[in-house]
Write a structure and sequence with these properties.
Strand order of the largest sheet: 1-2-3-4
Order of helices and strands: EEEEHEEEEEEEEEEEEEEE
Number of domains: 2
Distance between the termini: 54 Å
Shape: globular
Length: 266
Amino acid sequence: GSMGVDFGDYTHSERLSIYVTNFTEQPNNLYRNLGSQGFTDVGWASKTGQPSYPYVKWGTGFVDFDNDGWLDLFVANGHVYPQVDAISGGPKYREPMQLFRNLGNGTFEDISSASGLGQVSLACRRGTAFGDVNNDGNMDMAILNVGEPPTLLINRTRNSSHRVLFKLVGTKSNRAAIGARVTILLSGVRQFSEVRAGGSYLSHNDLRQHFGLGSATKIDSAEIRWPNGKVEALQNLHADAIYTIVEGEGIRETKPLSPLPDSTAK
């Protein structure tokens, strides 16, 4: 039984792969996009299948939480039957969240405990929305809990990795720019993301497109393909900023992000 879904280029192959969350005693599926050869399920090979097996999985997302340029994976869990708590040694109604760090070689590392998620109270969770709530360049999460207030998790990652966000405003296309694609090039590597109206599980993410840039302080080029097919290109953009781009007009506004922790060290 499948619940949540997200799409992302987690391998820098310039192709969208698919992550699907499933019911208990079923591993999550990571369908790697092989281009003309179709898709292949690498859930077990990516090391995200086994840790997910015991849980009932829901909201999920490909998100670069540490801004290293590689999309990580988050999964929200929670059973559907409160009665399972009465079964000794069985699954529980309230389940932990999971975070998998992209190692850049097609596999992921389970950093759920190391990230601090293990210290968050257990809950029966469902949808998860992702976005930069406090405009610091780090992606945060809002998670729906059954019968309880939602959880807002602010990303306090402190490292020297650079980042950028693009806010797109359509004019001839729809104003929210749903369906637009942003592609950036830096140091010979392309990353891309698309503006979507929904995702995860019954959730709606920040419409701004976020990219982790690692050690790069400049984006060589950025290309916006608007929903109507028109393409705009920008060159030599500085990192660590939020760019508002209006269709047909280029950059309308640039808001610098807060300095990185290491950038002001003496």
